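Dock adenosine-5'-triphosphate; give full complex structure.
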Amino acid sequence: MHIKNLTLKNFRNYSDESFTFTDGLNVLYGRNAQGKTNCAEAVFYLCTGVSPRARRDRQLIKHGEQRAEISATACGRYGDVNISASIWENGREIRVNGNKISKNADLLGNIFSVFFSPSELRLIQDGPDERRRFLNISISQLSRPYYTALLRYNKILEQRNNLLKDRDTGLIYDTLPVWDEQLSKYAAVVVRHRADFVARLAPLAMQEHFTLTDGAEELSVRPQKKYSGSDEEVRDVIFDELRRNYERDIRLGYTSCGPHRDDLDFVINGQDAKNFASQGQTRTAALSVKLAEMEIFKQLSGEYPVLILDDVMSELDLPRRKKLAERAQGMQTILTCTHAERVLCGRQSNKIRIEGGAVKR
Ligand SMILES: Nc1ncnc2c1ncn2[C@@H]1O[C@H](COP(=O)(O)OP(=O)(O)OP(=O)(O)O)[C@@H](O)[C@H]1O
Ligand SMILES: [Mg+2]
């Protein structure tokens, strides 16, 4: 799977620019603050419907403009697909092959993409939110039932949390079981998909980390909580857990258990990475997890995703850079950096120089 071309209009610091990509290595290079990451961000946005960094879509619109337009054509197993997005102050419209989609679920799965940047260190170092975000974005690309269950779960959770803040405890006790029946049903779908995903991810991440470190380090990825059994069994376990926590939840005013509290542990050579790993180790572990994610896309869809590497080469030592360059062979890679020569390790590439929100031709 690869993206053939991309057009940006009033997107971030771009007014109107087009890019042509090859199915191999594409290097966006140029000085700081010219628009390299912005371009990489646009690619990921068209693949997933979310920006890897902006929390609000309106941040993507060029300052002083009303509307950003982005569009790309990708080529995959099933032929070409065109995706376009139009973003304005209070909304957006996404089209797949010219047809307006009503739900983000209809966008997901058209172009798979894995994004890696230095801020992916947060995956290991930050709180559990980052790890759930990783799982959610990744699994949602692969599974529509997951994405739909997650949206429903979050919606009911919000209503449940509102209820918990009510002063009428009688009403709360009467209503909770009704919410929890629904909540635990969707929770079961979410936790089962996550468990399957992590079960695939863990051995692959271990292998990638082993390779990147020349066998010096062993990375384990472990879910903090394990659920087993059928969907119905998991649903019952979660339903009971919610019930056991009624009193606590009412006291706290929010729901204290469930998949919105799940977390993963990253362990390097037997030690918790979050508290003990060096910067380089953390970076390598995060990269291993992303490469493993890429491999899962390949296993499940038959094609490698578009690999976006934003500014990561400069932070790796030469052997790791070489290994990563080797690893990215055979799949479309969009890489940003300040000095193209330094990161290429002799590989052929499509070099695109970016200056002031434009391609320097
Ligand atoms: N909505 C926006 N409208 C106009 N300009 C923006 C907008 N959002 C970001 N920019 C500008 O885009 C510029 C380029 O940002 P970008 O992150 O793409 O730089 P970069 O080329 O990746 O640089 P670096 O090498 O430092 O990572 C920044 O100077 C930023 O201020
Ligand atoms: Mg950048």
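Observed: The chain has two domains: 1-112+303-361, 124-302.
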